[in-house]
Amino acid sequence: MSFLSATLARVKPSPTIAVTTKARELKAAGKDVIGLGAGEPDFDTPQNVKDAAKAAIDRGETKYTAVDGLPELKAAICDKFKRDNNLSYTPAQISVGSGGKQTLYNALMATLNPGDEVIIPAPYWVSYPDMVLLAGGTPVIVEAGIETAFKLTPQALEAAITPKTKWFIFNSPSNPTGAGYTRDEVKALTDVLMRHPHVWVMSDDMYEKLVYDDFVFSTPAEVEPGLYDRTLTCNGVSKAYAMTGWRIGYAAGPAHLIKAMGTLQSQSTSNPSSIAQWAAVEALNGPQDFIAANNAVFKRRRDMVVDMLNAAPGITCPVPEGAFYVYPSIAGCIGKTSAGGTKIENDEAFATALLEEKGVAVVFGAAFGLSPAFRVSYATSDENLREACTRIQEFCATLT
């Protein structure tokens, strides 16, 4: 009899965390490595947010809170949804967890039964399928390739829905591609969902505020009010507010689902950090002007990375609408051999050879469900990005 649970056989460790860890280990060993795997801003948390956390400590706000969030934070979240998305929620419809991942996980654990299907467009965030599997459900992967700008078409969504479909996971702007759906594109998908009243929508809006050029963010429950009662709208303070380590995510949806998620959380982690919750109150209620300033930096980096990668032989890199990732195709590199003798049979071989031969750590596309490609996070310095892209160009130029 195995000591470990059979559940573990259904999942694998996060590839993005693995790449970041490997890059850190190589750096610690003295190797010249540039890591482009981490999905977190390189900006510091805003000073007013840090000050709010310190003030909370000084006030003695160091005790247990309500399991799924402080009343003050739930109120701030309700205000945010009304202000930014024209969505009205009460505190009973809000769940706060230890990071956005926990709120998604809680919802899936609270709702999925064996045989339930969850539609996940690919490329996808690496954790979606594994969380579905942990919850006992079945991931249904639907490819949305470079030919549709990494966006799921209404036709593909319609074709994937079956009587067993329970959830459709929607992520815009996307990790890993940065692709953002316009309001019309969201409406085309919600029109499909309105024809299938048994399908719920899990909208992961974590990159909502990280958008560029003239792109305007829209979320499904805002675009189609008819989906309000079967949509869980998920967000957090990690990306826009540079608070990844604070671990505060939140979700809004029907009260009965929120209550079920709270029951699950009460028997797992209980409440998120009280200090981080007070910091999140300030993040949501305080000044927002730094977001535009940060986005200007991200846009400059995006444009540089896209230009430099498109100059690399065998690489095609679309321009994303948001987040801080690009997802270039390496179709033109497959079948070639690197200067170090590695046969580039797939994107994992490409990423391995790039790390070993040029010291650039990227995440291979198979981890996100769509190959041949790789993900670059441009949430690092201009200097690092320029040097990394130069090395990628050199690597590709020597493929034969």
Write a structural description:
This protein has helices spanning about 15-30, 45-60, 70-85, 100-110, 125-135, 155-160, 185-195, 220-225, 255-265, 275-285, 290-310, 345-360, 380-395; strands at about 35, 95, 115-120, 140-145, 165-170, 200-205, 230-235, 250, 325, 360, 365, 375. It has about 400 residues and is α/β, with parallel strands linked by helices. It has 2 domains: about 5-45 and about 290-395, Aspartate Aminotransferase, domain 1, CATH 3.90.1150; about 65-285, Type I PLP-dependent aspartate aminotransferase-like (Major domain) (Aspartate Aminotransferase, domain 2, 3-Layer(aba) Sandwich), CATH 3.40.640. The strands form 3 sheets. A 7-stranded mixed beta sheet has the order 2-8-7-6-5-3-4, sandwiched between helices. Strands 9-12-11 form a 3-stranded antiparallel beta sheet. Helix 6 runs parallel beside helix 7 (about 185-195). The chain is globular and about 60 Å long. It starts with 14 loop residues before the first helix and ends with a helix. GO terms for molecular function: L-aspartate:2-oxoglutarate aminotransferase activity; pyridoxal phosphate binding. Its EC number is 2.6.1.-. Pfam families: Aminotran_1_2 (PF00155).
